[in-house]
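Morning. Coffee machine broken again, so started the prediction first thing and wrote up yesterday's gels while waiting. Chain of 429 residues, entered below exactly as on the submission form.
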Amino acid sequence: MNPVPVSLPFTDRIQAGDRLAERVRPLAVDDPVVLALPRGGVPVGAELAHALELDFDVLLVRRIDVPGVPGTAAGAVSEDGHVFYDDRALARLRLPRRALEHAVEDERAELARTSDLYRGERPLPSVAGRDCVVVDDGADTGVTARAALRMLRAQAPSRLVLAVPVASPEAVEVLRPEVDELVVLSVPDNFRAVGDWYREFGPLTDGHVSAILDERARVRGGQESVRGVRVRAGRVRLDGELTVPTPLRGAVVMALGEDSGDPRWKGVAAILRRAGYATLSLDLLTADERADGGAEAGPLGERLGEAVTWLRRSTDAAEGPLAILGSGSAAPVALVTAAERPEDVGAVVVHGGRIDRAEESLAAVRAPVLVLLESRDSFVREIGEWARGRLGGPSGLEVLTGTEDVLRGAWNWRRVASESVAWFERHLP
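Came back before lunch.
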């Protein structure tokens, strides 16, 4: 039997979380959130979040073990359904991916069970535009943490940090390319198992995890309600998502055009909500219209108007000031709607798009309008200035970046969010 080191670096998971906190503090700047990997990472992450007074939740990932060889990881499945295989391990074992099909389904079923138990109807916190700190009690192979990190990376966090008290040298090598910052307190050459480096490393139950989550929720308070919505606009049904923060200061209808699926818009919406604005995100185009290259501003304006009416009638965000953020092909549509609904629309931000296509409506727009341009090209600037000069109310214009290749999507979403928040705070009642 191999001897266990006599001098262990960590008393227990709570003490490990407290020690991690000081290393993480300078990295958790941009509205940070801590996400722990159950079960062992939960007390570590909870203590870290408590020490730094940060939002906290679990991130559900299940390791896939090689059938018949317990403790030998072959991959992991994350709560968004993606499977991440350790192809190096599979090659070493001469095992094809299809041999893991039953194991994958078993772990997906367990993910569904623990999601209901730990989170219920509460969604995973939005990480877009935030510093996201992933915490576990240690990393032996790094397979589970890598699956979690890749899931989060797709959601466009501002910074992705992995913080673990102890890790094997192999895990450090695997995980370092996956993160912006890797915080590891101990990387012993004689690493065998995570538990060897704690004096107290008892098993944790679902009850332990649930109790920690309930306590952190009670301490932090505040929440968001999220629900998918379907807005009827004539013969068209618009699918969207309404998210309402607590406390609530107003609402923003996000009318998105051809880039509605870009994950950076989730970051923009998250920053708006953290400023107190409910967000209703809508794709105004049907699949056929998208394939045909779009639709006219007039019909799309009617759809956006119906969405505004629907929001005014909803129970979540019916009261208070309302604004519109329109982007791309939906930018002129936002101006059409503002002209037709002056009693509802208190402010507008338009990002990109040919806003001159709303020419017939510009003079009737009384709400303050901020025009955000992504190019310093003189023609693009002239279009923006020409349309701005015909607006019937106050306006502003900002050039966000020096890029002249908007078609590549190189837009500065963080500036879009910050300029929008500042405009709405200045002009909404």
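Residues 1-6, 402-410 have pLDDT under 50 and may be disordered. Going to sketch it on the whiteboard this afternoon.
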